[in-house]
From TrEMBL:
Signal peptide: none annotated. This is Ejaculatory bulb-specific protein 3. PANTHER family: CHEMOSENSORY PROTEIN-RELATED, EJACULATORY BULB-SPECIFIC PROTEIN 3-RELATED. Pfam families: OS-D (PF03392). It comes from the Eukaryota. The gene is LOC107220929.
Length: 149
């Protein structure tokens, strides 16, 4: 009888640990994607229209205004997308990013290098800001209101 109780106890612990692991992995895997509200845009058409492409490019670099809501949306999310390998992108956004990458490399490689440097710098700033927010608070590096004990 004692052996059966020990076996049941062990099975319950294993089931609990396995269940916890499944829930944790599911939560980690369901990272929220960027909004798909601009997925109807045809990126290749934008890239082939020189005045429009230049307007977006200057918006992304911060050297010109973002005159459309979608340009503002992309400017906000491009650095993080570059930093995280487009992990939060929809499938359409991943295809569009690939299209943009290939187009710039083939047609405007110098502009592409400038844009990537800017996006990488912005991405690093995002990373630093997030790190700073997490480490803000006390001299132990704990966020305000969080006690590590």
């Amino acid at each position: 009888m004692l052996n059966i109780m020990s076996t049941l106890s062990t099975m319950l612990r294993i089931t609990f640990i396995a269940g916890f692991a499944v829930v944790f992995l599911a939560m980690a895997a369901t990272e929220e994607l960027y909004s798909d509200k601009n997925d109807n845009i045809t990126v290749l058409e934008l890239l082939q229209n020189e005045p429009t492409r230049k307007q977006y490019y200057e918006c992304f670099l911060g050297t010109g205004p973002c005159v459309t809501a979608d340009a503002e949306f992309f400017k906000e999310h491009l650095p993080e997308a570059v930093l995280m390998g487009c992990r939060k992108c929809t499938e359409k956004q991943k295809m569009d990013f690939d299209t943009m990458t290939v187009w710039y490399i083939e047609n405007k490689p110098d502009e592409w290098q400038t844009l990537i440097r800017k996006l990488t710098q912005d991405a690093q700033n995002i990373k630093i800001e997030k790190s700073h927010l997490l480490n803000e608070g006390d001299d132990r590096g704990c966020p305000r209101g969080i006690d590590p004990r």
